Amino acid sequence: MKHAARLLVCTFLALLATACMVPSQRKTASSTAANDSPIIQAPQTQEKKEAEPPSQAPATEQKPSLKTVRVLLAEKQTSSSIKHSGQVYVYTKNLDKKYKVSAAGTLAVRTLGGGKVQVGTLKAEQSIIIEPTKNTLLTWNNNTYAGKFFIVPTKNSFLLVEHVDLENYLYGVLPYEMNYTWPLEALKAQAVAARTYTLKTLENVKNKNFDLYSDVRSQMYKGGGKQYDSVRKAVDGTRGKVLTYNNALFYTYYHGNCGGGTDDVRSWNFGASSLKPLSGASCSYDSHSKSFTWQMNVSAAKVMAYAKSVGLTGTLKSVQVAEKTNTGRATYLTIRSSKGSKKVSCPKFRLSTGIRSCKITRVSTSGQQVHFEGKGYGHGIGMCQDGASGMAKKGKTYEQILKNYYPGALITPIK
Question: In what order do the strands lie in the sheet containing 122-124?
């Protein structure tokens, strides 16, 4: 009996160690069916109990290394359903409770209040981990993931956090930050920029439970379980490569369209320090895009809602460009109302009102509408994604693209 028990424990440890490895290759999604996802079999409820928990936590239970990222998928959750395409292990962070689900199915997750959560049949006042075995994917909110899910209890809800390999994380970033049908060299440039931005963010993590958001607060991310062939080639073809300046990583900002030229980071983030790779660059490759020029109307009510947030009330009279860079990007606007005027940050105004960029070429107020015309899309700092695509179409390599938009930076291997 002792020999049988030891054999069972060893088998479980071997399976768990295999589960910790992110597969180097997975099926890629069809380039003509963007909404395809891995086939999920009918839910099963059979749970197989294990004899003993392993004596040591899996490697990714330790403080995440530069090759592992912790991505916040959701917060303030009270209940959720997580599908798994195959076998998974479910266990508590301290490994005192666990079980295995042997077939594809769905796990119910809910908060029990008071800092306690339940996953399937397991209840705990600590994080519960859902770990897929090799070739098993997890599905949440219609997106598929290849890493582990950590259900982190809070007072009356829980966080859903994925622990995933850096390169697999990039598989889930690229197609949501750049169109996966774009030229490969543009996608490679995006991969290097996104990898660098990620690792720079990991240098200053502020939350004990996660490193990155899965939205624009970090980078858009919808899971690396579903892969496009072009994205996989871009990530794998630049594996381990980052941008550095003076032997250090920097925030490799990027945006949709620069409208003919990028700007110094200080035109967007007034408190930022000057840095050569973020000092601005010429761009003559983005005019093919619909975003190169734009016009839109913003209601006077929306403008005054922002004005009120900065201390200006009354009826809107006008909006004017107060200061701009030498490329024509507004840094400050002046809002005038029946009660006075206020000089405001254009970047903050843009985020509040939804205008496409601060490279404003014309603005006029008529009745209850403010009419804006301009160039570009986004903050205009770092790499212009439309420009990167245009350069790639003209035969430029990803190294040339990065050299253009991040002047002075070097492409180096991760240290």
Answer: 122-124, 116-119, 105-113, 79-84, 138-140, 143-145
**How many Å apart are CA 101 and CA 107, to the nearest integer?**
9
Helical axes 300-309 vs 346-353, angle rounded to 10°: 130
Instruction: Indicate whether this model's pTM tops 0.85.
Output: no
The total number of residues shown for the chain amounts to: 415
Q: Would you say the C-alpha torsion 168, 173, 176, 180 has a positive or negative sign?
A: negative
Residue spans per domain, the chain: 40-167, 172-288+379-413, 293-375
Say if CB 137 and CB 84 are below 8 A apart: yes
Three-point CA angle 285, 218, 359, nearest 5°: 40
Q: Which two tokens stand for residue 386?
A: 């439309």
Instruction: Report the interhelical angle of 229-237 vs 184-202 (nearest 10°).
Output: 60
Paired tokens of 198: 């990620």
Alpha-carbon radius of gyration of the chain: 25
User: Per-residue pLDDT tens for 63-74?
Assistant: 334 589 999 999
